[in-house]
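Risk register update: the risk of archive-format incompatibility is retired. Evidence:
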Amino acid sequence: MRLSTKWLRDFTDIDAEPREFERAMSLSGSKVEGFEIQRDNIKNVTVGRILSNEKHPNADKLRLCRVDVGDRIMTILTGAANAEVGALTPVAADGAVLPGGKEIRAGMMRGIASEGMCCSASELGLTAHDIPYSDDGGILLLREDCEVGQDINDVLMLDDIVYEFEITSNRPDCLSVRGLAREAAATFEKPLRLPEPEVKGGGGELPLKLSVEAPELCARYSARMVRDIKIGPSPKWMRTRLRAAGVRPINNIVDITNYVMLEYGQPMHAFDYGCLDDGQIVVRTAREGETLLTLDGQERRLDAGMLVIADTEKAVGVAGVMGGANSEITDKTEMIVFESATFSGPSVRKTALRLAMRTDASSRFEKGLDPANTVPALERACELVELLGAGVVYDGIADINNAEPFDREIPLDTDRINRFLGTEIPEPEKYLRLLGFEVSNGTVKVPSFRADVEGIADIAEEAARLYGYNRISSTLPTASVTGRLTERQIMKSKSAALLRSAGYSEMLTYSFISPADIEKIGMSGQEILTIENPLGEDKSVMRPSLIPSLMAALAVNAAARNAGVWLYEINPVFRPSGEVLPDEEQTVIFGGYGMDFFALKGAAEALLKLFNINGARFRAKADNPAFHPGRCAEVYFGDKYLGVLGEIHPLTAERYGVEERVYAAELSFEKLFESRNDEPKYSPLPRFPAVRRDLALICAEDLSNESIMDVIADGLLESAELFDVYTGEQIPDGRKSLAYKLLFRAQDRTLTDAEVDVSVERIVGELRKFGAELRQLTINKGLD
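Archived output:
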């Protein structure tokens, strides 16, 4: 919200320096982002009178002018064809500064010295909307009441100081000059003037008929009419105030609606009454398939449920967003209808987003406006019509009020406020009255424009911010705070620590990904969640897997030629549930390039051990599209699927621009947590020694380690570990060599070699059923 100091002074007398005003307003809760001193934009530009205009002797398109600037006569060369003798024009002397920091210097042009420049409107940062009589093709010939030598800032009223405020969403009352004036007057403890509009009327009985068919979406709708409309430019004081506020002047009627919106915070609109069928306004929801050409020239297709302003036949405006071109004010308009209403904030927001046309009006309606403000704003608009001589106002107002009366009272408890704030404010009601609250008999009556104030804590905040946060001493909290992490949070933290200790670095990625990422990992046939209002196409779906996030991060590192990158992340994936909310599953992924499958599997086994999950199995998986068909395994605990790990499919890596082999494991953190064993089983140190045998087998290349481990199981076998896989010389094609370390132990005696040999023979016999052959059996007296 931009605030003009001149406009502010209509309501309160603030004479603080800009820096002081900025600091005081920010401390009292109205944050000032910055300010602009308009005089700093244009320096050393004054009014000059053209005394003569002659042809340049050495240039066909240049004119040689003598210009009186008050204290001297200047020679100025110009190419403008409209430099009339006797006319007044802005003159930039040597050293002058124009908007954008452009500096003017005297110089020679075709052998003749030019001491300055006659300025056009655009060179002063102005347009035909700011100065309606300006000539786009030449210099600005002033029609203002001014004198030679006068500063152009004073002539064109470019001498304001404009503050930029950051207004929070709970304070729509401060999206207005009157609202900020109230805050400023309270901050500096100055009197506040809020005059009531005075409308003479006399235009006759109001011919407008009004009905509201959707009262749940329109709390109040007020309208008043003006006849004998005279369309023309607004006066200079109105144009300059609008321009200071960042609004482009258009014509007197449109400017009045914008002026009132800025002054009162109440959006307004003006309809051409002659375009309304049957002279009637109907506030209703749009019909399915209904269309409307809006004022920006766009054909809008409206959805059923959108609130529109209509006549008996057609929609003439999208409520709270923008009017329709079919009721636009033109030079032929004779009668207008001023609209001032309170529409449902959520309804306006949804409509604006759906139609992609967020406006100043819609941004105000979204925050929730005061229904009590519609009629005063309407009266102010009609007052300005009479002030500008733009028409004759009809008598009476069409007003349908569906709003519930605002009657909120809060008990005033000074002791409680001071305990809450840690202060000793003797009379907090003093500050409340400055802000427009009524205080009597120990009760605070909240004004309707402060619907955000709901309880004693809000009252305390209002008093504190005017008392001064900087006056409140800093104290430490005295209450004891207790709390602890949940078991789930502890395990998540331990999992992250384990992966970091294994050499992985944490990554943090968005939950939104591109549909192209789904295709890159071969999951395009899977049902996914699409976002209705995405930030962009590249973030338009919720990720069903963390693999695209890992691959994208690895691609960035590979492009930067970072070697040996290992990454992990523990965050949710999302899948359709058939309900309002999707299924959200915490998932852990880890992987990278510059590693091998066994390093990855080792980290996975360490993670399983962390959760005390014993007996998990790795089963070969050949049809996962994201992974290499021969180098992928699924992890199961009993019949429960825990996740998948393996080498990423070469095509997937290629699509992401990663040339090295990539390995990744994606496990469900939820299922790991569900499968954990919270009660570790105590095993005493063994009393008797173990016996070791190293068993080397030759078997079919597609025989899985899991199948062999199931066969190896024996009553005396304490553990079995695969420690070598070999293919190559001395091994037939289609076969492989697997070497296992077997430890045998009995709990009640020392095993003999004969007992162990019996177990080994049984194991070898079972393996032969799978076509395996014993390649070598080694009796190892050590355990390593």
